[in-house]
Amino acid sequence: MTTRIAVIGATGYTAFELLKILARHPSAELIIATSRQDGNLSIQDVHPALAGCFDLPLTQLDVETIRSEVDFVFSCLPHAASASTVGSLMNGGVKVVDFSADYRLIDLAVYEKWYGVEHPDGDRLGSVPYGLPELYRDEIRQANLVANPGCYPTSAILALAPLLKEKLISTNDIIVNAVSGVSGAGRNANPAFQYCEANENVKAYGIGTHRHAPEISQYCTFVAEENCEVLFTPHLVPMHRGIFTTCYVRPNDGISANDAFAALRDIYCGEQFVRVVNHPVETKNVANTNYCDLAVFQNNDRLVVVSAIDNLIKGAAGAAVQNFNLMCGYDEATALL
């Protein structure tokens, strides 16, 4: 059995990682790849490393053609542009994993506040499963549309969710600091992400305004079953790929780092892509993989939970393929190990 696939917006870094995974997936048949770029370009023109993997041109987006020729779509379009396309595809019976933020938040007003646009398909908000299999596997299996998580939220939520679920930590005063490689900004010409600006430099950005903040708070709230306000600050560091997240939390009375470690270990026991370790984690150990490494330590009256992922894989393309596998009935780890 094979599944006919379209990748919409196939020129970015995330799409490149997705295409590499699909190239080795035994049940994925790439039929269509689209781009807004002009010219008669092929996949290998934009991604030379994929020469010999796909003999496909990059075409302009044509929803009717996609609806008639494929079974599954990975939408790598930016927010708002993605939802306007996904809504039409869903009406045609195609299954979709959406990489944008368009279906991650359940409150329309919150979405429009943080993203500054009117939602093109707002009626679906609240009914689309969040594509974090470790938390929502059953819902993903039954879904025709899944909202792929943000990269920062993936690293933070996987670190915090077990401790919130087991009521081991306070839902107040949760601080999340995270650093990301430059590829997290996508393939764009913003001078801030060019070599001369980013190299030998570290900076915080989006302080108090980063769009992943409400996403982290929302899903922590769902897991805790009470309101969680997370103070989130991202940082840009001079590396190509990876996210390292440090979460500072207050343990409830009598809870130690050993209790937190046991909760992480027990909840993620059997999860193929989450590794709970008793030593400091490092981004180099998860680079180019779909793993998330977690560890927890005591620091005076706080617990410090650290998380490392590859932002382009577990934080994007790898998670999307996990979701694809679940939605199509394939083994969840296919093409990811």
Please, could you describe this protein's structure?
The protein is an alpha/beta fold and 337 residues long. It folds into two domains: 3-128, 3-Layer(aba) Sandwich (Rossmann fold); 151-311, 2-Layer Sandwich (Dihydrodipicolinate Reductase, domain 2), CATH 3.30.360. Helix content is 32%, strand content 20%. It has helices spanning 13-23, 43-46, 63-69, 81-91, 108-115, 133-141, 151-165, 195-198, 212-224, 257-267, 313-328; strands spanning 3-8, 28-34, 58-59, 72-75, 95-98, 145-147, 174-180, 203-204, 230-236, 243-249, 274-276, 292-299, 302-309. It has a seven-stranded mixed β-sheet. A six-stranded parallel β-sheet has the order 3-2-1-4-5-6, with helices on both faces. Helix 1 crosses helix 11 (313-328). The radius of gyration is 19 Å and the shape is globular. The mean pLDDT is 95.
Features:
337 residues, alpha/beta, Dihydrodipicolinate Reductase, domain 2, 6-stranded parallel beta sheet
CATH architecture of the largest domain: 2-Layer Sandwich
What name is given to the CATH topology of the largest domain?
Dihydrodipicolinate Reductase, domain 2
Name the beta content range: 15-25%
Give the strand line-up of the largest sheet.
Answer: 8-9-7-10-13-12-11
Number of domains: 2
Total strands: the figure is 13
Rg on CA atoms, Å: 19 Å
Mean pLDDT: 95
**Given the helix and strand composition, which structural class is it?**
alpha/beta
Sheet with most strands: 7 strands, mixed
Helix segment count? 11
CATH superfamily of the largest domain: Dihydrodipicolinate Reductase, domain 2
CATH class of the largest domain: Alpha Beta
Contiguous low-pLDDT stretches (5 residues minimum) are none
| Percent range of helical residues | 25-40%
The coarse silhouette is globular
